[in-house]
Structure prediction request, 467 residues.
Amino acid sequence: MIESLPLLGAGGCPAHGLDFTAVDIRTTGLRPGRVVELAAVRVHADGSLAGELSTLVDPGPGVPLGPALVHGITRGELDGAPPFGEVLGPLLDLCAGSVIVAHDPAFAGSFLDREIGATGVRVPALPGVSVPAAARSVVRLPNYRPATVAHALGVPAGPGSSALSGARTLARLATVLFGRYGLTFASPPVFPGLPRFAGGRLLPRAEELPAEPGWMAEAVERIPDDGAGNAYLDLLAGVVADQHLTPGEVTALAALASEAGLSEAHVRSTHEQLVTALRQIAERDGVVTAAEARELRQVATALGVAAAGDLRPAAGGKPTRVLVLGTSVAADRLRARVLAEGVQLAKKLTASVTHVVADETVPANDPRPARAAELGAVLLDVGVAPVALGFDPPPAQPALASVVSAVSAATSKLVGGRVLMGIGLLLMFIVVVAMFGGTPVGAGIFFAVFGVGALLGGWWLAEPASR
Prediction:
């Protein structure tokens, strides 16, 4: 259903005047599987909302839903939900004439193609954009999961695990990537005609209250992406970011991996990779808090990994925690750099923030910098922050050293020249006085020559520009 379009920086077909429709789904597994929730959010290129839909989808009786800790949906919630065939019409109406936005177009497209195929309807491929691919072209991040990209670009990520929350985040990211960074299409998107259906029924999931993210939710944003497209690692990271794991939940996750064709060795290796990365992040700043150690040991125990068994709280001062304010490209790249360096990146100002960085887009009446100063945080400009935070070495200053050296030499010559001229004048004065006192002419001439030589030599040193 979704065909990813190649993107360019400047020079391609701009997105001005186009609409984007972000699509997100919740499924019963990694693959194969069925859709149990669908959401789509349509926005104009300027970010204004054009429409949205959200609905639970009943995959049919007897279909296992997969673990609820992944999508948060129970069988009871699906009672009375429409089948996919009743959802397809409203979905196509919302998507018509727009560019589809997805986190993983191939993944979402494969599930949607299967559901559409089961209805007997033929839908042509729609032009689409991969958010990770677009983000990779503008910022360097440890990973490109939606929450990480949103945090780096200063975009509020929707709370909870619902498809609507995910689709809203993807829609915001699309408008930032194409607006702030000026991404363009290699060729103009082609919008095919889509079938129309009468009616349609939706059953949205209840909105979730935002939860305060803990250390684990922030830590998974700093886990490096191995570049191999490990879908199971992404699944694990998303789960541990939201809650603690129990052995039973880990067993259910491993069953999903097995259904997707992943070997037991791959699953075990992924568990070790996750825990090892989290431990490295916890220890990188030299401070391991009791909460960090507790959460990490709990996850390691549930995953059956010993890599965190000996981790203990270690006091070493206050860990660096940076809040970057602003909506400029420079602010985005600094947020990305903070994550890439493994440093804590704050979402809001609290007493735990040690550094606050602001760019030129932060209004003068913004109360946060003043409040940060009251809390004892260091205030930095976005331009000097990489050096102040220790990411970059101080800039070399060979030109300045040369200037200082030249000034020092010139000053020494000036002082020496004037001293020499003073000696010459003193000699001439003595010669004149001595000649009036009856000193022989030969002796006077002898000392007068020394005096004139000192005057000329001093003038030569003190006035180099006149030569």
